[in-house]
């Protein structure tokens, strides 16, 4: 299909944030004919949480983090330094509202309900990704290698199998493998010294570099869809006029529009009104990634070590290792974390990466709601929308969420497909 060139004569929409959620929102809105401006405080696209995430596009075996076993497993994990999840930050009073709401979601019924909704958005994302990559030339190290999730104990594998059987009701394929079959599926595991009882193989899992996608998409937005992206501009506050938002205040004046979308990741909570129907507390869950040049035996599959809570996958000729979930706002990464993550990955796949080289080190904060579901839709004011709170799945859920946002905005304009 030839590239679309849009005149963009529709109502003016300002999207705050050029992370993966803001950029995909802008794509859908611009394709529908809205006149779109994206405002981003960083000097380029995907410089924050969308920068060096793990790169997994996992569309059919995802689940909400608030699960029935979570509170007990985390209580035990407090005594296992290698575990990868640090919940001690939840003791800080600022996180109590989030923690209380999260614990209320840790029931079997809530997990099933939230997981079903996540899967619905993910399925929309999968077909949207096929459409978008067919229409535009986007180079982002995309592959569909499949995925292996490894468990260190038979009990852990049995629990995972039960969850996968629930997820299978909504589609997708999985296969339960013993330890030897895991190595046969992913030879990079040969020589591993971590305990593996077995794994779940997901043949349809995809991978791709989120930031590369964002950079390529930003070019399409500007060059083919007439979107304006203003980098280096920070939104300080919303300027109200009765029940509507009139403008966004920046250090250099006001930015006016007909409609405003907050897609500012974790910072959305600071910009959005203090209360609105459907507002949920959001917390940043800190994670780390290390990107090394590929080694002699780089993995083909994306591999998650569920007990060590880390993922190893190949993006082009680089191997990315991502892990840790810490309730902390501190962007500092100590050498201990880097070393622990490197050691765990090396014990799993000894020759996956050039482990002796210095990796690119990155820290990000997953913008997470208690039920793990993003907030997508109109907030209190007539012309203010939000698309935020995608937690550990924003790259996977981005296009489906953008499609839902467009439907909601188009609905308010009384049109089926946009302006
Ligand atoms: C370690 C780790 C691994 C992950 N792995 C995966 C994975 O494998 N698969 C997956 O699907 N997801 C993954 N995620 C989650 C995913 O990265 C996030 O859900 C996603 O990046 C969130 O995107 P966003 O656009 O909402 O936020 P961001 O990328 O943070 O974008 C928000 C943007 O808004 C801008 N902004 C904020 N405030 C203002 C303001 N006042 N004015 C102007 N601009 C502003 C920010 O600068 C930022 O660029 C991972 C996350 C982490 C931390």
Record keyword descriptors for this entry:
single chain, 419 residues, alpha/beta, D-Amino Acid Oxidase, Chain A, domain 2, nine-stranded mixed beta sheet, six-stranded mixed beta sheet, 10 helices, 20 strands, 32% helix, 25% strand, globular, disordered N terminus, binds flavin-adenine dinucleotide
Write the layout of secondary structure elements.
Elements: E1 12-16, H1 20-31, E2 35-40, E3 56-57, H2 70-77, E4 85-86, H3 96-104, H4 108-135, E5 147-151, H5 154-168, E6 175-178, H6 179-185, E7 198-202, E8 206-207, H7 210-225, E9 228-231, E10 237-241, E11 244-250, E12 253-256, E13 259-262, H8 268-271, E14 283-293, E15 302-305, E16 310-315, E17 318-327, H9 335-348, E18 360-368, E19 375-378, E20 384-388, H10 394-412
Parallel strand pairs: 1-2, 1-13, 2-9, 4-17, 5-15, 13-20
Antiparallel strand pairs: 3-8, 5-7, 6-7, 10-11, 11-12, 14-17, 14-18, 15-16, 16-17, 19-20
Helix pairs in contact: 1-7, 1-10, 4-10
Residues 16-22, 39-42, 47-50, 53-56, 234-235, 263-265, 267, 271, 287, 289, 322, 364, 366-367, 388, 390-396 line the site of flavin-adenine dinucleotide.
Offer a quick outline of the entry.
With 419 residues, this protein is of the alpha/beta class.
SSE topology string: EHEEHEHHEHEHEEHEEEEEHEEEEHEEEH
What can be said about the biggest beta sheet?
Answer: 9 strands, mixed
**CATH homologous superfamily grouping:** D-Amino Acid Oxidase, subunit A, domain 2
Give the second-level CATH assignment, the architecture.
Answer: 2-Layer Sandwich
The poorly predicted ranges are 1-5
Class from secondary-structure proportions = alpha/beta
